[in-house]
Amino acid sequence: MNQTVRQPIRLALPAAALALLAFGPSGVLAQGVQCQITTYPRPLAFRDIAIARDAAVGAPISEELMVRSLIRCPRNASFVRGSVGFEVQMIPTQGGSRTVSNAWETGIPGIGVRVFSVSLGRTISGPSPANAIPTINNRNPTTANYFFRHQLVKTGPISLTGNITGRTIYTMRNRIASSGRITDTLDTVNLGTLSVTSRTCTVTTPSVNVPMSRALASTLSRIGEVTGTTNFTIGLQCESGFAVHITLTDATTPGNRTDILTLAPASTAEGVGIRIRKADNMPVSFGPDSAVPENTNQWLVDVSDGLSSIPMTAEYVATGAVTPGTVHGLATFTMSYQ
Description:
- By secondary structure, the chain is mainly β.
- Helices cover 7% and strands 40% of the residues.
- The chain has one helix and 20 strands.
- Pfam families: Fimbrial.
């Protein structure tokens, strides 16, 4: 009677042990198993870069360069979909940009790189190591090409010009999804030598004297009436391929944001101001003395190809009861090359 009670207990133990052994290894890849990665072309060879002096931080400064990574991953003997697999990570060598959230630094001051994964359909050059492709989770050996778009962007002031030797910008490695194990570096991507120049314009008329025509006070009897239009130009000599912007600033009243220039202290006339118009006859409003992109009341003059001058006009405008006398006004202009 005692034997028939003990025997089922002894048989149950190895059965349980066998069940544990059968399920134990199903979510584990062998230590040392990893993919092979080869990237083309290498180093990254961008065309010569000509940067507009006042380009905004984050602005693209190069063409998009397509890069192909050939990734070969071994057989996954313990395949269970969704539980194990290979992740491919990109690790920025120079760190993430502090000024452009979706770019990595290149080691060249003011120049970063933005990386877009075609297979993921998004930019992956964020502030931390990025998964570059979907997880590779197959039972059989896998060989596939993955494509990435690279573009250089402005991350700050660019002080270096000429031929600049590139550096390593990121490495590639595996992360084993089930265990979190990180492999050694599997591939290294470098930036080739860059040829960098700064584009700008030369102002050929740094001081513009506008001799206003004589006008009768009687022609300015009501507020808003205008008279005495005078033409003038701001002369430029520009390189090609960038947008030229300008801001006019009221030198007598720098905070003036209207389209009427304040009279300078030397004026003896009263109740009159000066309005400046662009070539399309639109009045110019005044803004801060700054070349930053999107400065208040900054306006686009033209794309710089063939640009040699900015035609403008000046006119008297009644601002109140007009008292005859002399009229003097002073404005400054600030060019912004974007």
